[in-house]
Amino acid sequence: MDKVSHAIFVLGGVYDEFTAEQIEAARELGKPVVFWVRPGSGQSEMLDLVGKLKELPAGSEVLGGRSIRELIPQLLGKLKPRETIEPAAPSSGIARVYLNYDTTLAEDARIAARITGVVNDRKFEVVLSGRDGDHERLMRSANAVLVIRAAHAYPDEWLKLNAMELALSGQIYEKNPDFAAKALLVVTEPARIRAQAAGVPIYSWTEQFPPETLNPFFDKLQAARSADAGR
Length: 231
Fold this sequence. Notes:
It is built from 9 helices and 8 strands. By secondary structure, the protein is α/β, with parallel strands linked by helices. It has a 5-stranded parallel sheet, sandwiched between helices. A 3-stranded parallel sheet has the order 1-2-3. The longest helix is centred in the middle third of the chain and has 16 residues, at about 105-120. The radius of gyration is 20 Å and the shape is elongated.
């Protein structure tokens, strides 16, 4: 816990000894504690219990919401750095496409390499999280984002978090306007992530992936660049 910025507790109807010990550890380490208490019977009692805890570090709070799904965007807003990070200007002046993938997975890296070729063929610049820098800086500086996920894991927390972030990127990164284009490229069951990626196009990956599948993505990016050039 000493390396984290916050300690986050999702509480149901039981406040056990292990939870109490973890909250105390966070308090001793000076980590802000964020609580989310499941609605329903017992919520008021749990909130009363949380309110009676020893003084917690600055920044500790209880988040609201009727469902666990509402917790994620609230957390993203709390966890983003407070300082303003100026977007880095594209080195080439060409629109940048950020390929966001899990660099710990060889299969995702392989697919990202193939999509890099597709993007380069369209004469756009590719940036990769593992090669070109940290995720937040690239989210702020890129003109478009494509999230790639080959893993068949289900549930897949990496995909859920990045899909939600992409859907809410305008408010999370205070981008106005939002990305010129953004999309998800997943291997199996695109419908499984649709709820977290409201408004974001989802494309299916296969080994015979036709590059023209991404035409709508590139068309949006090109249209935005043409509009900027005409101003």
